[in-house]
Amino acid sequence: MPQKLNPSIQHLLDGMTGIPAFVQDGRLDVLGMNDLARALYHPDGDEPERPQNFARFVFLDTGSRDQLPEWESMAQDAVAILRQEAARDPHNRDLSDLIGELATKSEDFRTMWVAQNVRLHHTGTKPFHHPVVGDFELTFQAMQLPGDEGLTLIAYSAEPGTPGHDALNLLATWAATVRRETRLNTSDSPAHHA
After folding, report:
1. This prediction's pTM
2. Strands of 21-24's sheet, edge to edge?
3. Ranges of each domain in the chain
4. Buried/exposed 125-160: b ≥16 CB within 10 Å, e otherwise
5. Which residue of 18, 116, 121, 167 has the lowest C-beta tally within 10 Å?
6. DSSP of 64-109, one letter per residue?
7. Given this structure, which CATH class describes domain 16-185?
8. CA–CA gap between residue 83 and residue 1 (Å, rounded)
9. What DSSP state is assigned to residue 159?
10. What is the tens place of the pLDDT at every residue in 41-97?
């Protein structure tokens, strides 16, 4: 069962308005994200009710290879994070169940898991393909949250004047427009006036 995100951490995420940011646990369950991360990862408004698991997305969702320009690298990172978490918390039943599910359903996962590659990056660049904004690259920082064992805050940014910075500005404008249209459509609905 994914742990709950402390409301103060969600407030922190919500306050980070100029950069996409989210928090994940060691199983790669995304526990919370801000509006810009939601626009980046869920452009169709398809954010699931329960936490999305990034490893399941990478290895079991057939669309992940199209959405992740560097799929192989992202898959290797996911396996490294899961392996690190398994070493940190070897008796975690939910983690064992997830690893078993991935090993049963994905040959790619099985191959990478057996390779025992444990390289892990806490900073770097990541390419994105977004249906509205196009292709761009962002820098990421992954930071362990003190006091919240196993939780990591991931934040993306781009240097001013770069294509990534322009893409973030366009993404923020698009997301704000979508939110405004959603609010207007909701307030115009007959149920709202009842």
Report:
1. 0.83
2. 30-33, 21-24, 152-157, 134-144, 123-130
3. 16-185
4. ebebebeebeebebbbebeeeeebebbbbbbbbbee
5. 116
6. HHHH-TTHHHHHHHHHHHHHHHHHH-TT-HHHHHHHHHHHHH-HHH
7. alpha beta
8. 18
9. -
10. 887 776 666 668 999 999 998 888 887 888 998 899 899 999 989 988 899 999 999
